[in-house]
């Protein structure tokens, strides 16, 4: 490429020096240079201006050593070379301009390429059975300015940028105690209680439980303290956003949960949201085709429907990605606009409903947790405790979500799995009384 650029200028130096011929040759050379500058910008990009200067100086030296020429002729040649030098300077200016345009173009290309890198490079499809779409989104860049005080706490508490988080006010003090006692017993260090009132903050402090108390002047928090369950649920999604913005993955946990193993040893971490299910068997937990029958339709009486039991919005692992944060924003937004909505229903609708006319669905990847490892209390009391094999397996957690008498059932779970009391689960009915 460099040769193409140097060629014309070199040739101007090698000619026999007769005024008009030289001028013509140089003009042609300059013209060629311009043409090449336009059509071969990459060549210009790599050749340095110093090379061109050298060519011109060499020509001057040869002019000075020519024998048998009148001084008039030499002067003429000199003035011609001044003109050529000026043209050369002009050409260099053009080169600089083209180079600058090229640089800007390269920058634009670079930006596009960076976007491609984020979205995944363009590839041809690999052979049948070997293609695999993306489900793991890149994480956001941590932004400490969102909440520097929380950032400091998380630096101490989190492990591998992961933390269990529970919100609690004084209404759930007894359950919270069973909750953190089980966590301590398993030996999980990375957990944090968001204390919604002073009482819980003091309770955590006196029990050596990591906690984070919100600033009292934060608007949404005062709503949560005076408001009911739904206001607290809305607050949950607002606060979670800060954790994700700080770059942490959160295992959000209700307090009616007993920990029996470290959940961080049982996560896949391949999806935006990884959640426990309210399902109680393979079909209800993982999805199935529920055939709806409409006999009046005759030949087409069977309509196939996709069914899955909802995700439990009281226990899910959420990675700090854009789709995750969008999910939190959408749920919090809807909870504030629709005060009578149930946070778990909203959470699931946002996660699962596809885009359709007038609606843009969320495109977050999701994974259902193993319902025997992350067990709800329906699975435990309806199935597991009566099954000789299943009752021997130790779940990771048990969530007493299906029963209103949470506290005694939590204690029974602790007695059964931790204290070896075989009969601890027996007194309770499958459902509520
Ligand atoms: C449920 O699914 C698991 C894994 O997906 C499988 O190993 C098991 O056999 C299934 N159980 C039933 C009853 O289909
Ligand atoms: C328990 O496991 C054994 C051995 O795999 C099997 O023979 C038995 O049928 C199982 N019992 C139940 C209740 O599933």
From TrEMBL:
> What are the coiled-coil residue ranges?
74-115
EC numbers on record: 2.4.2.-
**InterPro entries (UniProt xref):** Nucl-diP-sugar_transferase, Nucleotide-diphossugar_trans, RRA1/2/3
The UniProt entry, under Pfam families, shows: Nucleotid_trans (PF03407)
The region annotated as signal peptide is none
Q: Name one GO molecular function term.
A: glycosyltransferase activity
SUPFAM superfamilies linked to this entry: Nucleotide-diphospho-sugar transferases
The record's subcellular locations are: Golgi apparatus membrane
Membrane protein topology class: Single-pass type II membrane protein
Q: Tell me which domain of life the UniProt entry assigns to the organism this sequence originates from.
A: Eukaryota
Q: Name one GO biological process term.
A: root hair cell development
Gene Ontology terms: cellular component: Golgi membrane
> Where is the chain membrane-spanning?
21-40
The Nucleotide-diphospho-sugar transferase domain is annotated at 188-405
Supply the alphabetized keyword list. Answer: Cell wall biogenesis/degradation, Coiled coil, Glycosyltransferase, Golgi apparatus, Membrane, Signal-anchor, Transferase, Transmembrane, Transmembrane helix
Family statement drawn from the similarity comment of this UniProt entry: Belongs to the glycosyltransferase 77 family.
This chain belongs to which protein, by name? Glycosyltransferase
């Amino acid at each position: 490429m460099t040769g193409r650029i140097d060629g014309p200028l070199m040739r101007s130096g090698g000619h026999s020096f007769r005024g008009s011929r030289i001028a013509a040759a140089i003009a042609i050379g300059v013209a060629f240079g311009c043409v090449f500058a336009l059509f071969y910008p990459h060549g210009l990009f790599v050749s340095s201006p110093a090379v061109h200067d050298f060519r011109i100086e060499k020509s001057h030296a040869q002019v000075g050593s020519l024998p048998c020429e009148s001084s008039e002729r030499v002067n003429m040649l000199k003035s011609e070379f001044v003109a050529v030098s000026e043209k050369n300077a002009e050409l260099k200016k053009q080169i600089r301009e083209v180079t600058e345009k090229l640089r800007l173009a390269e920058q634009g290309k670079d930006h596009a390429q960076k976007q491609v890198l984020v979205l995944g490079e363009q590839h041809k499809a690999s052979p049948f059975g070997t293609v695999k779409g993306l489900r793991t989104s890149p994480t956001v860049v941590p932004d400490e300015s969102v909440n520097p005080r929380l950032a400091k706490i998380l630096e101490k508490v989190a492990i591998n940028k992961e933390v269990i988080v529970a919100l609690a006010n004084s209404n759930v003090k007894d359950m919270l105690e069973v909750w953190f006692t089980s966590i301590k017993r398993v030996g999980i260090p990375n957990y944090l209680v968001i204390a919604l009132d002073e009482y819980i903050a003091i309770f955590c402090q006196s029990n050596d439980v990591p906690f984070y108390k919100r600033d009292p002047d934060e608007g949404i928090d005062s709503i949560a303290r005076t408001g009911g369950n739904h206001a607290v649920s809305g607050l949950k999604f607002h606060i979670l956003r800060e954790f994700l913005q700080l770059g942490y993955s959160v295992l959000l946990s209700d307090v009616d949960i007993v920990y029996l193993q470290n959940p961080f040893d049982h996560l896949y971490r391949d999806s935006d949201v990884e959640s426990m299910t309210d399902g109680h068997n393979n079909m209800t937990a993982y999805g199935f085709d529920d055939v709806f029958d409409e006999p009046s339709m005759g030949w087409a009486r069977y309509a196939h429907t996709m069914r899955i039991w909802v995700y439990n919005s009281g226990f899910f692992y959420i990675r700090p990605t854009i789709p995750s944060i969008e999910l939190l924003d959408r749920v919090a937004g809807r909870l504030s606009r629709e005060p009578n909505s149930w946070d778990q229903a909203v959470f699931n609708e946002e996660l699962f409903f596809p885009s359709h006319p007038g609606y843009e669905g969320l495109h977050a990847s999701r994974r259902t947790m193993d319902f025997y490892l992350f067990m709800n209390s329906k699975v435990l009391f309806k199935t597991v405790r009566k099954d000789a094999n299943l009752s021997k397996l130790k779940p990771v957690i048990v969530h007493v979500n299906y029963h209103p008498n949470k506290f005694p059932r939590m204690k029974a779970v602790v007695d059964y799995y931790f204290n070896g009391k075989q009969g601890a689960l027996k007194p309770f009915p499958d459902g509520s009384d």
